[in-house]
Amino acid sequence: MADRMPTVAVIGLGAFGRAHLQAYVRAGARIAAVADRDPDLAHRTAEEFDVPASFTDAVELLDAVPIDGVSVVTSAASHVELAREATLRGCKVLLEKPIATTAAELATLPDAARSRILPGHVLRFAPLHQRLRTEIASGRIGAVRGVAAGRSRTRDHQRLYADVHPARMTGIHDIDLVTWLTGSPIRRVVASVDGEPTSLVQAHLLSASGIASSIRVSWLLPDGAGAEDELEVYGQEGVARLRVDSTGAVLYGQSRERPWAVAPPTDTPGLDAEISHFLRWLRDDVEPLVTFAAAAHAVAVADAIVASGTAGGTPIDVLEVPSWTKQ
Ligand SMILES: NC(=O)c1ccc[n+]([C@@H]2O[C@H](COP(=O)([O-])OP(=O)(O)OC[C@H]3O[C@@H](n4cnc5c(N)ncnc54)[C@H](O)[C@@H]3O)[C@@H](O)[C@H]2O)c1
Questions:
Q1: Taking CA atoms, which of 66, 79, 269, 320 is between 20 and 30 Å from 245?
Q2: Looking at residue 6, what DSSP letter applies?
């Protein structure tokens, strides 16, 4: 089996590119090359992970090194361009979220590229998020009538990700979770934003099937604090709650004392499972667990949230609502 292990590369070697590399090492993948436009970082990271080649120009890497797949873990502005270059060369891409900064930018990708991209919507692979979806599918809370999601990050995000709106950078997780858990795309949003730069986003999402959900993103926690995520799913016969913070994750119904499932703290929930899935996709062409269509829809919903927030809360219809988002 080891000799069928795919050969991969990682482009973008910041905190999360490093997390991808560590996950590839744990999975036993062959890492043939890394790239970062920061030459010291590229060189140091290659040495540290014993990777044979490093590049400052990602396209040079794609031209020079034969690989089956590549993780694109750069800042959002370069995702579409690098995905285009990699897929043009026949390579499959694990493309970090947000897969594009806007739907208009995403529309510039050729159709042929779309089937070669696995969007990095990592929470779909996180054990407790998967368990939540399984519980919902088994009818434990009855038919889903709404979702409320909150995601708080530290203030330094305002500086570290200054070029990406929080709805796109952080809220994209919750947009995707809402469509994944309700099974329905979003058709209209009403949003408010606050802060200069924007550091608080609250949005009301109306799905094509009439389910109303809300998401809240803040980049206002003190620097050094742990992230705090909460997700509530309201069903006709009960409520499911998922809390994630620096003490770990807990999934429960009515009683927090008797949780349905718990998980230890981790900075990268789901990443090992996502990387393993990507490697299986490269090796065996299994059905991808996150579709391009679902991630493209999430980008379009984020566009609508930004537009509504900018317009002071005007309702905005999401462009191109899929008749069904394959989940
Ligand atoms: N799924 C998650 O939970 C999660 C968590 C963190 C980050 N991310 C995503 O991962 C990506 C990277 O995040 P980060 O925190 O590591 O960012 P970062 O800014 O720390 O690192 C990005 C790195 O990419 C490099 N880079 C940028 N453009 C490049 C290009 N064209 N060619 C080569 N190198 C380039 C930069 O030099 C930098 O080292 C973002 O898209 C982010 O949304 C996802």
A1: 79
A2: P
| 61 pocket-lining for ligand 1 (C-beta < 6 Å) | no
**Domain end residue (candidates: 120, 149, 170):** 120
Same domain for 183 and 141? yes
Give, for ligand 1, the residue of 38, 40, 57, 75 to mutate: max count of ligand atoms closer than 8 Å to Cβ. 75
Peptide bond into 197 cis (omega under 30): yes
Structure confidence by residue, pLDDT tens digits, 132-158: 999 999 999 999 999 999 999 999 999
Q: Are residues 153 and 27 in the same domain?
A: no
Residue 323 lies in a domain: no
Instruction: List, for residues 64-118, the tens digit of each pLDDT value.
Output: 999 999 999 999 999 999 999 999 999 999 999 999 999 999 999 999 999 999 9
**Strand partners for 35:** 11, 55
Q: CB-side exposure of 78: number of CA atoms within 13 Å?
A: 15
How does DSSP classify residue 101? S
Backbone angles phi, psi at 218, to 5 degrees: -130, 145
Residues of the domain holding 166: 124-266+299-317
Last residue of one domain, picked from the residues 101, 120, 139: 120
